[in-house]
């Protein structure tokens, strides 16, 4: 289990706070709930990527350029979510979810949202 460091960070995490899709966190107690937070990004596909994806779609297979775009977008949304949660004083986000939408057939909106909380290990009660 990842133990919080003195800075409020969790070891092994890509983000400065703990992000979890779970509603509670085994081994930890939620001591404060700050409420809903979100991170949002909107990315447009470039013309060459769209054309290449169209040709690849005809042949079948993974659209690697679009997969990378969506993966990068998710990480950017998570980074913004973590920043907003930290600004409220949280050290974790629980019940993390994603929402994705297409805008005007040329852009993708990626939203990450969840509940900002402060957690402590059960041993620190």
Automatic annotation (TrEMBL):
It comes from the Bacteria. HAMAP family: UPF0145. Belongs to the UPF0145 family. This is UPF0145 protein ACFPEL_03885. It comes from Actinomycetospora chibensis.
């Amino acid at each position: 289990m990842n133990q919080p460091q003195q800075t409020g960070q969790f070891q092994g995490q890509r983000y400065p706070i703990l992000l979890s899709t779970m509603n509670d966190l085994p081994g930890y107690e939620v001591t404060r709930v700050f409420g809903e937070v979100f991170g949002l990004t909107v990315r447009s596909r470039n013309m060459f990527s769209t054309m290449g994806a169209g040709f690849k779609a005809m042949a079948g297979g993974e659209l690697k350029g679009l997969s990378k775009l969506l993966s990068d977008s998710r990480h950017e949304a998570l980074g913004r979510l973590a920043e907003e949660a930290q600004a409220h004083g949280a050290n974790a986000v629980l019940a993390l979810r994603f929402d994705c939408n297409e805008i005007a057939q040329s852009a993708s909106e990626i939203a990450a949202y969840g509940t900002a909380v402060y957690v402590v290990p059960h041993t620190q009660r």
